[in-house]
Design a protein that fits this description.
The chain is of the alpha/beta class. The chain has 13 helices and 11 strands. The N and C termini lie far apart (74 Å). Bound molecules: FE2/S2 (inorganic) cluster.
């Protein structure tokens, strides 16, 4: 028996459905909405068959909601919109279809939890570059065949005066989606700098990322609760590099030498490629006290930190150069402290 020939279809980016033939949408209204959607497609070049970001828009039979329509869905995002009129459609088109950001105020249902929608299909397929290169030798002929190619006479051609083009907006959104390893600094005189860093580490560990902690200055024989936790969790590298707090150190030269040794260790771990996230705990002191040259450290990080490595640096008095270099800086500010106001000493499991 001959196997029936499978049809072929060019790649596309999204598919929108507008309901009709049920109780919630007057068919004429649904048709007008689809026509307006297709006109916006033409305006943004998202009707062209060769554009892998092409957006299909189909009038559907009843979508099974049958109230508060017209209903419009966008797939594969799995986003459902209600009460879609011309103005709402334009907002959805601009923000969601072009900008990639669903319009929260008009959503009533999601197939996926918010923020966990599938990656934009042209991005997953890797054919965004093709979209950016524009026409190919037979593109013109194809475009003549493109879906809904006939634009109404009143539809104005986009001009530079209209502001950024769809391609420019999409490029901007793609840049905004770009991931990079962040440099995060937790500084200030309040408590919680290390604790916040460990919270991020816990989150990363939970996602099976490779994590490590280099602890500057804290006594390498100390067994804080967080170190015990890391030992129990396993697969967390915990490297102590210091000889105790500066104000308990009997030999400042030794402290300084240990800090320098710690930085050498840090450089090895940072450039090893073995981590997704590294914490340099209390590292700012090595810069603040001048044991390490801040400009040299930042210069080394700029040249050697792997692109996707997240680096968290904690400690008081973060130098301005470090703050300028970082992507995320948080200052912990002391408002009340149980020891200062009430003489309550640090308690195991809470402060260490
Ligand atoms: S007609 Fe709109 S969902 Fe049924």
């Amino acid at each position: 028996m001959t196997k029936p020939k499978a049809p072929s279809m060019r790649s596309y980016g999204r598919h929108a459905f507008i309901c009709m033939n049920g109780n919630c949408t007057d068919p004429e209204k649904a048709i007008n909405l689809q026509q307006h959607f297709l006109a916006l497609n033409r305006k943004h070049g998202l009707n062209k068959l060769r554009n892998p970001e092409r957006v299909k828009c189909t009038l559907s039979d009843c979508l099974g909601v049958c109230s508060d329509g017209p209903i419009l869905t966008v797939y594969p995002d799995g986003i459902w919109y209600h009460h879609v009129d011309k103005a709402v459609l334009e907002q959805i088109y601009q923000e969601h279809i072009v900008g990639g950001q669903p319009v929260e105020e008009h959503i009533f249902h999601r197939l996926f939890p918010q923020g966990q929608e599938p990656t934009y299909a042209p991005e997953s397929r890797g054919d965004l570059a093709i979209a950016a290169t524009g026409s190919s030798p037979d593109a013109e002929a194809d475009e003549k065949k493109s879906e809904n190619a006939v634009a109404p006479a009143h539809e104005p051609a986009p001009s530079p005066a209209d502001g950024p083009t769809a391609a420019e907006i999409r490029a901007k959104v793609r840049r905004a989606r770009k991931k990079k390893g962040l440099v995060i600094v937790n500084t200030g005189d309040g408590k919680g700098k290390t604790t916040a860093a460990l919270g991020v580490m816990l989150r990363a560990w939970g996602r099976k990322m490779r994590v490590g902690v280099l602890q500057f200055l804290k006594n390498e024989n100390a067994r804080f609760g967080e170190i015990k936790a890391a030992q129990r969790m396993g697969d967390i590298d915990w490297i102590s590099t210091g000889d105790g707090w500066t104000w308990t150190s009997k030999d400042m030269d030794e402290t300084e030498a240990r800090a320098r040794h710690g930085w050498e260790l840090a450089k090895q771990h940072i450039s090893s490629g073995n981590y997704d996230l590294l914490i340099l705990d209390e590292f700012t002191y090595t810069l603040h006290y001048g044991w390490l040259d801040t400009a040299e450290v930042i210069g080394w990080l700029k040249a050697n930190k792997p692109e996707m490595l997240h680096l968290i640096i904690t400690g008081r008095n973060a130098p301005k150069t470090l703050i300028d270099y970082a992507d995320l800086v948080t200052e912990m500010r002391a408002i009340k402290h149980p020891f200062k106001e009430q003489g309550i000493r640090a308690q195991a499991g809470i402060e260490y």
